[in-house]
Design a protein that fits this description.
Its EC number is 4.1.2.13. Pfam families: F_bP_aldolase (PF01116). This protein has 342 residues and is an alpha/beta fold. It contains 13 helices and ten strands. Strand 1, helix 2 and strand 2 form a beta-alpha-beta unit. About 3% of the residues have low confidence.
């Protein structure tokens, strides 16, 4: 299927919210990881979200240059073409964009979509994340207010982060106090006061409840997904809305338990980011292949190796299938398996 239109993407999120499930949003940094995600979603019968970070976009453009907007556009063009061969729907999203990266990442991509839409086309990306977690709350809100009308005009969705996700992802690093890892209802209320609840443009919110990027040993991370329900109730009461007025995003989800994921989804999460676990699945399978076929991939003891083993397609297929299997697992955890609207 082609990449989701803005209306299809909005419908995906609405279906998830109404149906009590969420979509995996998997980071891709190469054509191989794109293929793996499409393979996994197809095997699971699930729609999903493909996303790219600043670092992933840099890599798409070529690791010896710094041209992340170009890399992101190349990523999008590739997905738009190859997704036509798969019977599921995917949306395209740009992940974590801190303030220093606005001018060379998200803003050029919004401008590119504005040009396409002006010519009668669809936005290149269906949503963009502004990561204002490293700036004061008021500045975070002000920048979100500047971005939201531009995205509304091209029928795209804004993702905001209210709170701090610990750890590091592609150079975006947070080492704040433990309290900063838990979003407050008061901070969310300030955002809603400024952005509205959809009337000024649709946005999804990454609230933090102890989330940390990466995977840590048990006991090192204290997730409180029930906090999301408390915040939803507080916002509903203050603004006089129905239950769960916010569409939420779960960051730092790798390594979470099934119970933690289920609680987060029950409290309004419609999108969960997955990166570390899929990276490991990809690379672990390559390591296994190399160890099992070392005399084929290496020309040792004067031998010539085995071209069928060191051909990048041989281990590449293994890696893509291993990553695809982790994508399938994610759809099962989130409840999106078997629910493709395609």
């Amino acid at each position: 299927m082609p990449v989701a239109t803005p209306d299809q993407y909005a419908e995906m999120l609405d279906r998830a919210k109404a149906g009590g499930f969420a979509y995996p949003a998997i980071n891709a940094a190469s054509s191989q990881s794109v293929n793996a995600v499409l393979q996994g979603l197809t095997e699971a019968g699930s729609d999903g979200i493909l996303q790219v970070t600043t670092g992933g976009a840099d890599y798409f453009a070529g690791h010896t240059v710094k041209a992340r907007a170009t890399g992101a556009l190349a990523f999008a063009a590739y997905v738009h073409e190859v997704a036509k061969s798969y019977p599921i729907t995917v949306a395209l999203h740009t992940d974590h964009c801190p303030k220093p990266a606005l001018d060379d990442f998200v803003l050029p991509l919004i401008a590119a979509s504005e040009s396409v839409v002006a010519d009668g086309g669809q936005p290149i990306f269906q949503s963009h994340m502004w990561d204002g977690s490293a700036v004061p709350l008021d500045e975070n809100i002000d920048i979100a207010k500047e971005l939201l009308p531009r995205l509304k005009a091209i029928n795209a969705i804004l993702e905001v982060e209210i709170g701090v996700v610990g750890g590091e992802e592609d150079g975006v690093k947070h080492e704040g106090s433990n309290e900063a890892l838990y979003t407050t209802t008061a901070d969310v209320s300030k955002f809603v006061d400024a952005l509205g609840l959809g009337e000024n443009g649709r946005y999804i919110a990454a609230l933090t409840f102890g989330n940390v990027h990466g995977v840590y040993k048990p006991g090192n991370v204290k997730l409180r997904p029930e906090l999301l329900g408390e915040i939803q109730a507080g916002i509903a009461e203050k603004f006089g809305t129905g239950a769960k007025p916010l569409d939420l995003v779960f960051h730092g989800g790798s390594g979470s338990t099934d119970e933690e994921i289920a609680t987060a989804v029950a409290n309004g999460v419609v999108k969960m980011n997955i990166d570390t676990d899929t990276q490991y699945a990809f690379t672990r399978s390559v390591a296994g292949f190399m160890f099992a076929n070392y005399d084929g991939v290496l020309k040792v003891d004067g031998e010539v190796g085995n071209k069928k083993a060191y051909d990048p397609r041989a281990w590449g297929k293994v890696a893509e299938s291993a990553m695809a299997a982790r994508v399938v697992e994610a759809t099962q955890q989130l409840g999106s398996a078997g629910k493709s609207q395609s």
